[in-house]
Amino acid sequence: MRAVVCEGLASDYARIALKDLPLPDPGEGEVRVRVEAASLNFPDLLMLKGEYQFKPTPPFTVGMDLAGVVDAVGPGVAMQPGQRVAGGTKTGAFADYAICPAASLHPVPDAMSMAHAAAYPAAYTTACVSLVERGQLQAGETLLVHGASGGVGMASLDVGRILRANVIATTASSEKADALKLAGANHVIVLGDKPGDNFREQVKALTNGRGGDVIFDPVGGDIFDESTRCIAFNGRLLVIGFAGGRIASVNTNIPLIKGFSVIGVRAGEYTRQLPERGRIVRDQIWRWAAEGVTKPVVFAELPLENWREAFELMRDRRLVGKVILRP
Length: 327
Fold this sequence. Notes:
The chain has helices at 42-48, 114-118, 121-134, 151-162, 177-183, 200-206, 221-227, 253-258, 267-273, 275-291, 307-315, and strands at 2-6, 16-20, 30-39, 60-61, 65-73, 84-88, 97-101, 105-107, 142-145, 166-171, 187-190, 212-217, 231-239, 261-264, 298-303, 322-326. It is of the alpha/beta class. It folds into two domains: 2-120 and 296-326, Quinone Oxidoreductase, Chain A, domain 1 (Alpha-Beta Complex); 123-269, Quinone Oxidoreductase, Chain A, domain 1. The strands form three sheets. Strands 3, 5, 6, 7, 8, 15 and 16 form a seven-stranded mixed sheet that branches. It has a six-stranded parallel sheet with strand order 11-10-9-12-13-14, sandwiched between helices. The chain is globular.
């Protein structure tokens, strides 16, 4: 079978190759999935450089999220070959076949395409853990989403829409504004050359001076700094990641005086540490999918051999939603 393999850590893609590997056999509690679609996540790129919290040892097959058909099952697994499933694996999705824990897979609703199913697990789990579990977002509150055009950002706009929040999205590109509104944003703020300098007053103007009740921040740096200046009293500033490069800090007198909370969100760790809450999150996001209320956004679908193009689309932030690799 073919697989996109990281043979060594590097700042570029010099140690990545499309290779032929033996077909793996599932062990106890595992499923072999014939992959029909796999989606790229920002942590996939971080792993290639050894910069993510989870650090797989090379060589490893890249990719976390997939959708496909059950091909074979290991002992103790009740799934049947031919069943359409989607889910996550720490590595291994960018291949013709992948081995996944059965517990990580979920049946794909009949009306959902494989591309949309592959775009779903990590992004919507992160959005649900962030906004429902950790952020406690309520109907009528204002949600400010940074990095809104990425896969997780678009999922958060969508979940904010479902929860009936007043959703504000920020983006560095005016060309992405229409797509963000379709994804659930009530308002879009286009950032300038110095993104930390020009959204505070706009957020306050859009909220009658109150600011954002929940702020979703996967960027960090200047974006985090400015977010502390436009957050509402009793607001929740969610730290999702540091795509901007700089890990921000805050003087504790600021949340003391302004009465807001800074909340760290690691969705995968949250569901591992609190498995019952994790099951509730998973049931919720797939219930939304079955009801057809979510709108995952697929930006591009590329053949597996075009993995480099997919990686560059994400690295250069040219995406609006998810890029899918099709074996």
